[in-house]
């Protein structure tokens, strides 16, 4: 009887350990463009539209026609098949689960990801706070991006030239950090 209890205890322990290790940590940036865009779309639907996959598809095509070209959201619409130029048609993977009340995160991370993994590769660019970062530790690519986001020309060769130019014009574009603002008061 004692060995039987030991076996049951051992199996229960193994089950608990495997269950703990099988839990995946959700990366918040995984499918961030899809989750945000589809979430905004779902929030814009009326109760009548939410009940029918066909109405959701029609509304999503209309939603995507209003999205700015050359944005992450436009690319998402292309991947799902809501644009006339789309090569694929996966709107059913969006409209049916949305009509069934499945959460947006699950639709993006599981259903749409299965139909086209590129959907979850779309990520928003993180803005670099030039006042809080050591510019000498950034890559030249990031320094170029800072200047191009500001609309400044950047035809330099050396990293030091990029840093010098950023420091020359950053007062015009970057808000002062909290410490600098406190010193001015």
Automatic annotation (TrEMBL):
Pfam families: ARMET_C, ARMET_N. GO terms for cellular component: endoplasmic reticulum; extracellular space. Residues 133-173 form the ARMET C-terminal domain. It is found in: Secreted. The keyword Manganese does not apply. SUPFAM superfamilies: SAP domain. Residues 31-128 form the ARMET N-terminal domain. InterPro entries: ARMET-like, ARMET_C, ARMET_N, SAP_dom_sf. Keywords: Disulfide bond, Secreted, Signal. GO terms for biological process: dopaminergic neuron differentiation; neuron projection development. Residues 1-22 form the signal peptide. Belongs to the ARMET family. This is Mesencephalic astrocyte-derived neurotrophic factor homolog. It comes from Adineta ricciae (Rotifer). The lineage of its organism: Eukaryota, Metazoa, Spiralia, Gnathifera, Rotifera.
């Amino acid at each position: 009887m004692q060995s039987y209890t030991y076996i049951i205890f051992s199996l229960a322990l193994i089950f608990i350990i495997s269950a703990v290790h099988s839990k995946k940590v959700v990366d918040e940036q995984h499918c961030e463009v899809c989750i945000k865009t589809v979430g905004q779309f779902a929030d814009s639907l009326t109760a009548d539209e939410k009940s029918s996959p066909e109405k959701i598809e029609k509304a999503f095509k209309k939603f995507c026609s209003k999205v700015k070209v050359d944005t992450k959201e436009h690319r998402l619409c292309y991947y799902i098949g809501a644009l006339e130029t789309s090569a694929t048609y996966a709107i059913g993977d969006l409209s049916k689960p949305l009509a069934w009340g499945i959460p947006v995160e699950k639709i993006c991370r599981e259903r749409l990801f299965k139909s086209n993994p590129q959907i979850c590769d779309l990520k928003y660019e993180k803005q670099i706070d030039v006042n809080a970062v050591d510019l000498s530790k950034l890559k030249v690519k990031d320094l170029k991006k800072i200047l191009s986001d500001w609309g400044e020309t950047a035809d330099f060769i050396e990293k030091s030239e990029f840093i010098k130019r950023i420091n020359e014009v950053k007062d015009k574009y970057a808000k002062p950090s909290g410490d600098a603002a406190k010193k001015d008061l």
